[in-house]
Amino acid sequence: MGDGHDPLLPGQAKASGEDGESWLLSYLDVLTLLITLFVLLLTLTDPAAETASSSPAPLPGVAGPARATGTQPDLTGLLPRLDGVSVSRSDAGLNLRIQDHLLFASGQADLTAPGTDVLHRLLPLLEHTRGTISVEGHTDDVPIHTRRFPSNWELSSARASAVLRYLQDQGIAADRLRAIGYADTRPLRPNDSRRDRAANRRVELVVHERRAGP
């Protein structure tokens, strides 16, 4: 005899509970997708988030914006404004070019008083550099033949040595310095005019900069 209700088949109540949980899980999945979509849209439209994502991350051990390794600091701001003195960069490093009349009298290799003043004003720049400083003397192609200077080789070498000795006396380490005389073998311009010959007579300070380590 029954009690008026249909008998439950085995496992029927369990199936009804699983159907309810399945509906709840589906609702939670949809809600999670909506929240994810909302966060994504907020990130794409937030200027602060966009700025943060576009800024490069700093390199390890480097504060602030990322910097390229091995680059040299810009020291040209330390160069005083001097007529007849120019600064440039090359594969070797920093190059200071000084016209000879600023340092020496014609055909001489003794620094003049104005010449020592010019070099003194270049000292702050040289002191802020690293590496070897090559002091290079250059002449034009007009021959010289005196007791002291039998040729332009001796003149250019003596001028380079005079500048080197002054720099050493002012505190530049001797192991950073070397003097080279090129005579007229490396002209800047053809030696076919008075103006071009004057440009070729010069002393160059070439700073062979040491590259910064990683």
From TrEMBL:
<dbReference type="InterPro" id="IPR025713">
    <property type="entry name" value="MotB-like_N_dom"/>
</dbReference>
<keyword id="KW-1133">Transmembrane helix</keyword>
<keyword id="KW-0812">Transmembrane</keyword>
<protein>
    <submittedName>
        <fullName>OmpA family protein</fullName>
    </submittedName>
</protein>
<feature type="transmembrane region" description="Helical">
    <location>
        <begin position="24"/>
        <end position="44"/>
    </location>
</feature>
<dbReference type="InterPro" id="IPR036737">
    <property type="entry name" value="OmpA-like_sf"/>
</dbReference>
<feature type="region of interest" description="Disordered">
    <location>
        <begin position="50"/>
        <end position="75"/>
    </location>
</feature>
<keyword id="KW-1003">Cell membrane</keyword>
<feature type="region of interest" description="Disordered">
    <location>
        <begin position="185"/>
        <end position="214"/>
    </location>
</feature>
<feature type="compositionally biased region" description="Basic and acidic residues">
    <location>
        <begin position="186"/>
        <end position="214"/>
    </location>
</feature>
<dbReference type="Pfam" id="PF00691">
    <property type="entry name" value="OmpA"/>
</dbReference>
<comment type="similarity">
    <text>Belongs to the MotB family.</text>
</comment>
<dbReference type="InterPro" id="IPR050330">
    <property type="entry name" value="Bact_OuterMem_StrucFunc"/>
</dbReference>
<dbReference type="Pfam" id="PF13677">
    <property type="entry name" value="MotB_plug"/>
</dbReference>
<feature type="domain" description="OmpA-like">
    <location>
        <begin position="91"/>
        <end position="211"/>
    </location>
</feature>
<dbReference type="InterPro" id="IPR006665">
    <property type="entry name" value="OmpA-like"/>
</dbReference>
<keyword id="KW-0472">Membrane</keyword>
